[in-house]
From TrEMBL:
Entry's Gene Ontology molecular function annotations: transmembrane transporter activity
Record bears the keyword Transmembrane helix: yes
Keyword Transport: yes
Lineage of source species: Bacteria, Bacillati, Bacillota, Bacilli, Bacillales
Keywords associated with the record: Membrane, Transmembrane, Transmembrane helix, Transport
Protein name: MFS transporter
Localization annotation: Cell membrane
Domain Major facilitator superfamily (MFS) profile: 13-489
A GO cellular component entry from the record: plasma membrane
Pfam families assigned: MFS_1 (PF07690)
Primary location class: membrane
Membrane topology according to the record: Multi-pass membrane protein
Transmembrane parts of this sequence: 12-38, 50-67, 79-98, 104-126, 138-162, 168-187, 199-221, 241-259, 279-305, 311-333, 345-364, 370-390, 420-443, 463-482
């Protein structure tokens, strides 16, 4: 049983990362809610509004792994600090944006800053807290901060949009960023050994193109076979008959080229031999499934409550808050239990709770009362919180040596990719539920409080599809959660010194 207490240095470092994690999550969620106000003020089209959100996510997701490896080479504290400065400058600039192009560029810059911070945050924690001891508890607090950031961001943005201006939502993070910069200088970073090796620019470029292309392709999946060949812009490309087949071949070719480049690189971005580490790979897969499940819930609940049950949007918000609140509370509990017991059963229990929650959702679907959906949502949120913090700890523990930035970057990349895949999978699953109906699914305009275009039976069919997919994925995640640290220890110790 761990009875250790945090040192002052550990507390300062943990508080720095917690505030940084809270800040970026706080800033992420409100942007979707403010888009209608931004569009009215700047005269944006629906497509332009979508790109204000998309460019941030593309910058963030595409650079997470790269930023983690740069942290390994030059120091995670330096990269984290640089990211905070970029985020601060971009947030100020976003609030002053006077045109679509200005806001587009500043949001891209904000995404870069977030990637530099997020890609190195858990690496900093890993170095401050030795394996065992208080590490899992520290990860639990960081994870809770992310969930609370999303939760509070939703509440604050609603107030600001109602009574003030969308510009203030960008500026509210300014004092947070300044405080992070003040705190980060209190962290004592071990001196990184000087290296003459250059940054692996070829590998970085290939990784960015592969990730961004994958995100773009997955986001376009709901349009396959349903969009008009006469459509313009990006949709004109995704509507081409060969698009669904050509892009995967293109991605396979780039991946093979990336492997060749990384084997030759002196300081590769992608540490290939770590993919022989079963614990590392299985835990990343479980992380991907966890965040995919999170977004699946976020996607179908508004449709279910508003169009299926005919209730006002506020009631959908109550269900989602029940999920987020428990997801914010339980990471600290799961981390504390893991620190005290070191039990390998915690991850399977967490994923098992998620799995059982989706199974219960299947059976209560059709209930006209909101109570079952709130209770099951809270149950799933608790499972997510328990699994999330402990799985993060396992991922970071599974990588030895000077590759903590790589582990942190991979963890965050699989998290964001899970969100991306979930949006596409949920849209397709819901669309299949309306195929037998004469109505069309309007992703960006549902929620009519009972006055929408989708009848209840159609919504229930679509929700069942999403729940079934979530059950199957949670089953895979449940199996992956049983991989334990002892299975990977030998591989990690015997990993070759060179990056093959």
């Amino acid at each position: 049983m761990s009875k250790e207490k945090m040192s002052p240095e550990q507390k300062k470092g943990l508080h720095t990362v917690i505030l940084g994690y809270f800040m970026v999550q706080f800033a992420l969620v409100p942007v979707a809610a403010m888009l209608p106000s931004v569009s009215r003020d700047l005269g944006l089209t629906m497509t332009e509004s979508g790109w204000i959100m998309a460019i941030y996510l593309l910058s963030l997701t595409g650079l997470l792994l790269i930023s983690g490896r740069i942290g390994d080479q030059f120091g995670d504290k330096k990269v984290f600090t640089t990211g905070t400065v970029i985020f601060l400058v971009a947030s100020i600039a976003c609030g002053f944006a006077a045109s679509y192009m200005q806001l587009f560029l500043f949001r891209a810059l904000q995404g870069i800053g977030t990637a530099l911070m997020s890609g190195n945050a858990l690496s900093i924690i890993s170095k401050l807290f030795p394996e065992g001891g208080l590490r899992a508890r520290a990860f639990g607090k960081v994870t809770s901060a992310a969930a609370f950031g999303s939760l509070i961001g939703i509440c604050i943005s609603t107030i600001f949009l109602q009574f003030f201006s969308w510009r203030l939502i960008f500026w509210i993070t300014i004092p947070m960023a300044i405080l992070v910069l003040c705190l980060v200088y209190t962290i004592k970073e071990k001196k990184v050994e000087a290296t003459s090796a250059k940054i692996d620019l070829r590998g970085a470029l290939l990784i960015y193109v592969i990730i961004v292309s994958t995100v773009f392709y997955v986001s376009a999946i709901p349009d396959f076979g349903s969009c008009s060949p006469t459509a313009g812009g990006m949709q004109a490309l995704t509507c081409q008959p060969l698009f669904p087949f050509v892009v995967p071949l293109f991605l396979i070719g780039l991946t093979l080229l990336l492997i060749k480049v990384e084997r030759q690189a002196e300081q590769p971005i992608l540490i290939l031999h770590e993919f022989k580490n079963q614990l590392f790979v299985s835990s990343l897969g479980a992380n991907f499934i966890l965040h995919l499940a999170m977004i699946n819930v976020t996607f179908f609940v508004p449709f279910l409550v508003e169009d299926g049950l005919g209730m006002a949007p506020v009631y959908a918000g109550i269900v989602l808050i029940s999920v987020e609140f428990m997801n914010a509370i339980f990471p600290r509990i799961g981390g504390a239990i893991y620190d005290r017991t070191g039990s390998n059963a915690i991850r399977p229990i967490g994923m098992g709770i998620i799995l059982s929650g989706f199974i219960i959702y299947w059976f209560v679907l059709g209930s006209t009362s909101l109570i079952p959906y709130i209770l099951v949502g809270a149950w799933i949120g608790a499972g997510m919180g328990i699994f999330w913090s402990v799985n993060n700890n396992v991922i970071m523990n599974s990588i030895k040596g000077n590759y903590q930035g790589f582990a942190s970057g991979m963890l965050e990349t699989t998290r964001q990719m899970g969100h991306t895949f979930a949006s596409a999978i949920s849209a397709v699953a819901m669309t299949l539920g309306v195929m037998s109906s004469d109505v069309s699914l309007q992703i960006h305009g549902h929620g009519s409080g009972g006055g929408g275009n989708l009848d209840a039976s159609t919504i229930f069919d679509g929700s069942k599809n999403i729940i079934m997919v979530s059950i199957l994925l949670a089953l895979i995640g449940f199996r992956l959660a049983f991989y334990q640290e002892r299975k990977a220890s030998v591989l990690t110790e015997e990993a070759p010194a060179q990056q093959q």
